[in-house]
Each structure stands twice: as C-alpha cells, then as structure tokens.
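Chapter review: from sequence to fold.
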Amino acid sequence: MNKSQSLSSEQRSKTILSIVLGIICVIYVLPVLTVVLNSFKVNTYVKTDTFAIPRGEMWAGFQNFIKGMTFGNYPFWKSVLYSTSITILSTAMILLFTSMAAWYIARVNSVVCKGIYFLCVFSMVVPFQMVMFTLSKTADKLHLNTPWSIPIVYLGFGAGLAIFMFVGFVKSIPLEIEEAASIDGCGPLRTFFLVVFPMLKPTMISVGILEIMWVWNDYLLPYLVLDINKYRTIPIHIQYLKGSYGTVDLGATMALILLSIIPVIIFYLACQKHIIKGVAAGAVKG
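The token string follows.
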C-alpha cells in the first residue's frame, strides 16, 4: 500500500468517525431541543405535535414561563433560593473537607488511611436506592432535613468521587515542596492552605463543576429528606405543577425545566476545559 492509499484510508476512517460522533451528538441534543420547542407551545399541542416548531396557534410566547412561576401557592423564587443555597453550601463543603482528607490519605501511608480510601472508592458504586429509606430516617433523627443541614448528607455522598480524584492529584505533587514549607516553619494547616491548596486548582474546578451539576439537578435526595411543604428545590417544584385530577400543564413544566437547565449548561460550557484537565490530573497522574 503506497502513501496516498494510506492517507485515503485514514481520511475515510476520520470521516466515518465524524459521522458517528455527529449522530451521537444529535441524539444527546434532541431531548434538550424538544424541551426548548415545547416550552413555547400551547399545552394542548405539546402532546399532539411534540417535535413541531411552535408557530401560529401553537405559539404560547412566554405565558408558559409566567404560569410555571406563579402556579399554586408556593413561590418559584423560594425554590430557586433553596436550590442555589443547597448547591453552593454542598459544593463548598465537599471541596474543602474532601481535599483535606485526600491530602492526609495520600501523605500518611498507613493501613487505616488505605482502608478509608478504599471505602470512599467503594461508596461510588453503591446505588442510592439501597440506602435511601435508612438515610431518610437517619436524617430526620439528626435534624438534617433543612436546606441548611442537607449539605452534610451531600458531603457523604459526594466524598467518594472527590477523594478519588484529589488523592490521584496529590500523589503527583512532589513531596519536597511540602518538606521545604515545613523547614520554613509551616505547620500542617499552613502547608495545606498555603502550598498544597493552590496546586489543587485544576482538580478543584473539575470536582466543583461535577458536584454542582449533580446537586443542582438532584430530585430524589431532597424529596426524601426535606419537608416538601416548607422547602422545595426546583426539581420538586416542577414535579408539583399539577392541576385538578392530577392533570399536568406540560407547557409550563417544559418552561421551568428550560429555566433550570440553562444555568447548568452555561456553567458547563464555560468550564468544560477545566473538567477535562481536572479528570486527567486526578485519574492519570500518580
């Protein structure tokens, strides 16, 4: 086979791969596009003309958004406030505590630390459904059923992935840097916050983005733990868009779903390069 034939074969392979990846992208984008289209349709046309472009009598304008935000006796802005508070507090706690724990696990070579590490990794494969009923009872007994205390529960569930990624990155940091800081008079806390913590930035951003997307979109854990008559996150608020006899206004539902996913999509697109860097740094190095 000559050089021209080899290049032609390589180009065909790249073309086929591009077509396959393009089809996969369309499959993944189609649900989001469907939500966008139906959020501007009159409710009666959402079921009958799901994939049609809204125009003419189908066009509802922004009425679905207004109806979704004013539906019932529970204000939508409260749901936004609770979702934002839970997401920020949970992510901050996960980043702070798991990074400190990962640094200790990576630097202290003991049986106990190895056991804790493997338990954290094992927690990543345990399905939430196995522990959800026990968890809800425990959260009630420990008064972890408010938006200000549920981040502690999220800390427990998010620690596995975070510690796994942080430990991998910490092992790639030369130990001599920390020894030099210790010689200069830094204690363990100062060494971590002044030397190690700034170096964790790639993995910190990656873990933060993944945790934010998980907590913001989570429905089951808040539904089981929180008192939904007092505290409703955005996914729970959307689930309660029901009228008499259980009828659901699909147009208003699609509108609120669109509002809930727009911040996450913008945030992800702005930070996606950090996700790739962070995952590579935490899972490949060390």
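Two observations follow directly from the output. Residues 4 and 10 are 10 Å apart (CA to CA). The chain has 13 helices and no strands.
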